[in-house]
Amino acid sequence: MSDENSSVWVLGSIHLADSTLYPLAPVIDSAFAHADELAVELNMNDEEVVKEVGEQSAAQGMLAEGTLRDLLPQDMWNTVDSLCTAWDVPIVMIEKTRPWLAAMTLSSYAFMQAGLNPEYGIDYVLLDRAAMDGKAIIGLETAEEQIGALADTTESDSAGVYYLKTTLHEIAEFESLVSNLMQAWKTGDDDMLRRLLDDGENDEMPLHESKFKDEFEQRIYVNRNAKMADSIATFLREDRKVFVVVGVAHLALEKDNVIETLRKRGFKIERL
Question: In the chain, helix, strand, coil percent, each to 5?
Fold first, then answer.
């Protein structure tokens, strides 16, 4: 996206990856070199941001009373317990978390079990490059905003239980999911990315789960996508040259993704 005085490049990130993604394509390196600033969801190279993420996760993700086991159907708890045993993860790390945080924690371990690591994540690699190049770094969100979007702190934790259920389902097929996700990213296969990232059509699940899915997508994607699009529009109005990196789902999922939101607002977008 560009006009006479400004340019914004937008790249979808895989937050945990491996060395096979590198070197990045020359078109990405060229665009990054032309940018004066790097915008990411959160600047995880900033110690204050990392500290705030930890504090917000604890504040919104830990149970004041009872345990995770009390909230889950027995078969789901058995799956969580089995994964922790298989991965040598102390169950104490999980048992006092709310279901949404348990889902995020187990998902991170699943990525690492598959050989992926945050240090190879696109945003982390480009954050390091930006620091070396002296580029300004912009956080598109605060830790409170991002954790708040992920968190289900309702008394019933029902939406969090649904999120954990879908995460456990993905983990069961994780090896093929990760392999296909990496391949789709490398080849720029939007259709495959969309299929891999979408967990199914609403009419294939019970009505109450369909409701949780809609609420989850609204908080995690639609609302945040709109805010990201606002930031990009501001960069263009202010005649800046910014390279934007956000999770690939914010660009690939069909419903109100960042790119389509900007198109609807009249911005002309070119794929490099």
Answer: 60, 10, 30
